[in-house]
Amino acid sequence: MFKGVIFDLDGTLVNSLGDITNAINTVLKKHNFPTLSIQECQSFIGHGVRDLVVKALPQENQNEEWINRCFNEMLAVYQDNCTIKTAMYPNISNLLDELTARKLKLAVFSNKADKLTKKVVKAVFPKWNFEVVEGLKLEALKKPNPTVALEISEKLAIPTEQLIFVGDTDVDILTAKKANMYPVGVDWGYRTKEELILSGAKYILEDPLDLIKIL
Question: Cβ atoms within 10 A of the Cβ of 31, count?
Fold first, then answer.
């Protein structure tokens, strides 16, 4: 019997593509680098902001100096503009209401920087109680490293096998499997259904409320 749900943030609970694309393109324009289309940005998301910056930079500028410079600039721009277009996907609010009514504990684990993860959750989800909200604090601990997922399990006081892990990328599914949690993918996010199945998702949600069927 499941007692809690850990959610990825971007591409799972919220569509943040507009704000992320605008932020990285602001930095790229500043240095006269080619900007990204929404589709390109979408394909780069999932491994944290630093990874996005590396992939967005021209190949000849993918060195530590440029990466660090643009990474810090991206964080500064995005921090001030991370909740302008970002919003919940349809039916997420209904799912959270249902999970809350069933007394399941809720958490968020994202590869977005910790401060930004907490800011977005606070702004977009003021009505719901996420008992633990964790973003990226150390590059070495980003998903699919299961360390933080295991720490969330301890903080929630729920055994890993009684936790559902919901995400939109192979990174999320691999994290769930490594942490011995039930891996669930969503088909409205930033990756394909096929990628999630290949990664080992036990269930693919076509609508947020499909999660109730698992319970």
Answer: 13
